[in-house]
Amino acid sequence: MTVRVRFAPSPTGYLHIGGLRTALYDYLFAKQKGGKYILRIEDTDRTRYVEDAIENLLSAMEWSGVIHDEGPFLEEGKIVQKGEYGPYVQSERLHIYREHIEKLLESGHAYYCFCSKERLDKVREEQKARGETTRYDGHCRNIPLEEARKRVENGEAHVVRLRLPENRDATFEDAVRGTVTMNTSELDDQVLIKADGFPTYHFAVVVDDHHMGITHIIRGEEWLSSTPKHIILYEAFGWDVPKFVHLPNILNKEKKKLSKRHGDVAVGDFRKKGYLPEALVNYIALVGWSPEGNEEIMTMDEMIEKFSFDRVSKSGGVFDIDKLNWVNSHYIKKADLDRLTNLCIPYLIEDGLIAEEEKDLKFDWVKRIVKTAQERIEYLAQISDYAKRFFGEEVKLESEEVKEVLNQEHVKDLLNIFKEKVMNAEEINDEFGKKVFKMIQKETGIKGKNLYMPIRAALTGQLHGPDIDQVIVILGRENLIKRIEYVEKNYI
Ligand code: GLU
Fold first, then answer.
1. In 3-state terms, what secondary structure has residue 73?
2. CB of 331 closer than 8 Å to CB of 282
3. Of all atoms in ligand 1, which is nearest to the CA of residue 222?
4. What would the mean pLDDT of 464-483 be, rounded to a whole number?
5. Helices marked H in 66-144
6. How much of the chain exceeds pLDDT 90, in percent?
7. 260 an active-site residue?
8. pLDDT at 36
């Protein structure tokens, strides 16, 4: 049996971080088993339709590197579907649902229901008042099919419902939760086709999973209680039931379901802040799953090798932003410098530190800044705050201690010599950055802390920070001189 799994998001406008994790587990499992990972768009709820949602979703998926084998893809801004089991967008599969609902109507597993919203509301209110669980009361269950068809032909508003067998246990195996059983008396005669002619999620999901040859259904635990209804549908069609894997929720630190109200949850938000896709994917894999050996930093290939549902926890995984930041800074340190620079430039432009037109001209210079930032930032949006130190000629002293360093007796001469070396240098490059201290030491005898500290203090207003020789090269001749003069004038 070839493993086939699917991620089936509804295009509601953005990709939730929990959705990315589901997609990732689909992907890891499929790759490990030599199977296929399918992306299907579940867009049958027309009331939730959002413009460009599919494009946004696909672009978030593409960015994440969790790439499907079949389904819709974005190619030059257009949606193109690939694979032999398509269409992969549910609103393009209406004829398939129509054909299948006919079968269920004929076999008696489904029936037309003509109850108005007012009637249903009334029934619900009455049930509530009696303290009963609210459910459809079966009012239209026994209308003969011929009669119902006539009413439909006459244009009467209707839905189609599943005829649940009475008092039957629906049982299935879940890879995370074990055996799950629910009695049909706890369930409702689920609507399968809505008044607008579109299928409900419950109907479309079963028809599509079957026709797309899905072997394992991996999804969020919010669907656990719907699965018995799906099982009844599989049985009604006489189809084999796939395996189920219901993943625990992603929780916030207060152990509540992670939601937009508590901060970022959209993959796009993390992208905007400058989380690297490999870091986000690595981290999110660990929210609810722990590999044997408890490694934390893993490449995609390592995750594919180690992934197993046995080690997915039943209780929800907690989303910990500090841990994500730690993982992200690890990947920032390792990332290719050109790539990182290209990713950092938009932040510098947005924050007004460099202009759009000078981004190519200043690339190498920015690259130097980014190199010194690699050890110091957790996500790329922090680059502007970090880079500010290299802009402008004013030097703000970080503390009284810096002032004390600058007011040592030898500092006046030291800064003068330094300034003179800068003025006379052929070029302020790496070689100069390294050599200048040796030259000054040789000429003046000042060395070690007495040499480096005051120069750092004068150039940056701080006693600690990035490599001083790099600071010198980044600041460049003009700014070096201006900063020294500013310090001489204001602090010494
Ligand atoms: N369309 C459903 C969702 O967005 C998919 C649930 C499933 O995977 O069956 O959550």
1. strand
2. yes
3. 10
4. 97
5. 94-107, 117-129
6. 92
7. yes
8. 98
